[in-house]
Amino acid sequence: MELSTMLFLFVSFLTILFSKSLIKFFFSSKGRQLPLPPGTMGWPYIGETFQMYSQDPNVFFATKIKRYGSIFKSHILGYPCVMISDPEAAKFVLNKAQLFKPTFPASKERMLGKQAIFFHQGAYHANLRRLVLRTFRPEVIKDKVSYIESIAQSCLKSWEGKMITTFLEMKTFTFNVALLSIFGKDENLYGEDLKRCYYTLERGYNSMPINLPGTLFHKAMKARKELAQILAQIISTRRNMKQDHNDLLGSFMSEEAGLSDEQIADNIIGLIFAARDTTATVLTWIVKYLGENTSVLEAVTEEQESILRAKEESGEEMGLNWSDTKNMPVTSRVIQETLRIASILSFTFREAVEDVEFQGYLIPKGWKVLPLFRNIHHSPDNFKEPEKFDPSRFEVII
Ligand code: HEM
To answer: Coiled-coil regions in this chain (predicted)?
Structure first.
């Protein structure tokens, strides 16, 4: 073959290859040169973090939404971010784990334990989710209602004649309920030690992650270590007893769960964290809203008292049971409305695992994506008069 023919074939081959890549480039989301969402990125590295913290973060986000719409970009806490305030879009981001993975600062992972459910995806995550949900099935919770009631009653008794700090008391209450769900009847054996370590862990959770003696972070890390030792002791005692337990620890320790002791401990520590502060905060807001809305308080009181009266009249046992809890529509709506209006978790973080085309914009790989729960719950597009505490908005029209 002549040299010119060979050269021609070689150039043709390169052209074909190049054209193929070019076609692929222009027809993929990366190549189409999609624009980034609207918004501003602030200063290099610090971005708009100071603007966000120097005002109410919710006002910061609300101002951006007004200006740029329901999807916009910013740069906070050291990361480029895309904020989402449309409910359907938020649902999409939260449900597409293959595109948007959960992400937490490394210090949180160290503190709660790297094997905890929050930091994982895929089969390991699905297995943990199944094990957790199995323990909180109605059939399981059903049997715990009277225990939970007795915890509530002993809290109420301890408040008699005292001035209390509602949030602290709610934390004690939710901690005791968490211990009951996790350790069942063994809760009393380790309660005080767990509580002491847990309080220290919690105080350091949002501190600067500087692990030097004397810092809150250092104390929290020490408490975390002690918690792991206590849990190892509980697990080993249970293994020696060779009994089945109908609680979360029992579920984690079952053979088919296939979890190591370290995985069990990380998830127990993580779950107490997920369950306790959240629930205590919501309970505190419920007390506040009931205190401020006399007619709602009267309706809730009437609903609760009518359950008691019915029991008295029928001669039924007076303690609260599962079917009573199904008979509290007003109380349930108060809880739903409090979850909406208080929106105790303003937003969460996900991270784009690859370049993603989203509503005509590009979300680059590695950018954080924040579904803005609070702004969604406080938008008049989703809830009429969003700033009004109105449980009747959750009435179901039959
Ligand atoms: C009112 C109280 C609560 C609120 C407002 C709340 C809120 C949330 C939110 C928003 C998430 C998602 C975070 C994300 O994906 O980035 C979450 C996850 C989670 N919560 Fe709660 N939570 C509450 C109570 C509880 C309780 C009582 C438990 C105990 C069983 C619990 C266990 C979990 C777990 C295990 C996850 C991770 C789920 C997963 O990765 O699949 N939470 N919670």
So the answer is: none
